[in-house]
Amino acid sequence: MTRASLDKQPSEVASMFDDVAAKYDLTNDVLSLGQARVWRKAVARAVDARPGERVLDLAAGTGTSSLPYLDAGAQVVPCDFSLGMLREGKRRHPRLPLTAGDATKLPFADDTFDAVTISFGLRNVQDHGTALAEMLRVTRPGGRVVICEFSHPTWAPFRTVYTEYLMRALPPVATAVSSNPEAYVYLAESIRAWPDQPGLAARLREAGWTRVAWRNLTGGVVALHRGFKP
């Protein structure tokens, strides 16, 4: 089974997601104890797509996260670098214009989108700064970015319980429900290595985003960051 290392070589990460594509959404629902659906709804509300707007949904996987934007009347482009995920998405959602692309070299013109969003994908990109700059490039002036990513629980006792769950409980649960449990060992390790909420906010500002803010979901297990292009 394929498992990416924490240096996040693109070929390793893409291959890992190819392996888990068929059961990816189901596994996420189980491992998040049902919170994954709550988080997706929170992202859709934060993006607040309007009819006629153009939305780029990065790390879209099978396209499940893109459906709310389509239903809102926006023109959504789901983009992912895992061809296995895209094939599974096309089978499930043939109406979506699924697109292959690397977050560090986006195949879109400058100032194309009203909103760019990425959920649980920035952590898997090898060069976060380049990806954030690319998102800025393809967003029109005044447009917005919404990033949903695992973060650091704000209450210390809960943070300890959460860390124990990641490193002890998550791998055996993943073994029971996933086609590639090793991928979820990588998941746990990559979450632990990810910067906290102020750290990610600082990276957004360094990339050129303004009015950067965040709010915590599920006690800081996940954080929603938002910024605007000047």
Automatic annotation (TrEMBL):
It catalyses: a 2-demethylmenaquinol + S-adenosyl-L-methionine = a menaquinol + S-adenosyl-L-homocysteine + H(+). One of its GO terms (biological process) is methylation. It comes from the Bacteria. InterPro entries: SAM-dependent_MTases_sf, UbiE/COQ5_MeTrFase, UbiE/COQ5_MeTrFase_CS. S-adenosyl-L-methionine binds at T62, D80, D102, A103, S119. Pfam families: Ubie_methyltran. Coiled coil: none annotated. Its EC number is 2.1.1.163. Pathway: Quinol/quinone metabolism; menaquinone biosynthesis; menaquinol from 1,4-dihydroxy-2-naphthoate: step 2/2. Keywords: Menaquinone biosynthesis, Methyltransferase, S-adenosyl-L-methionine, Transferase. GO terms for molecular function: demethylmenaquinone methyltransferase activity. HAMAP family: MenG_UbiE_methyltr (MF_01813). Belongs to the class I-like SAM-binding methyltransferase superfamily. MenG/UbiE family. Methyltransferase required for the conversion of demethylmenaquinol (DMKH2) to menaquinol (MKH2). NCBIfam families: MenG_MenH_UbiE, PRK00216.1-2. This is Demethylmenaquinone methyltransferase. It comes from Streptomyces silvisoli. The gene is menG.
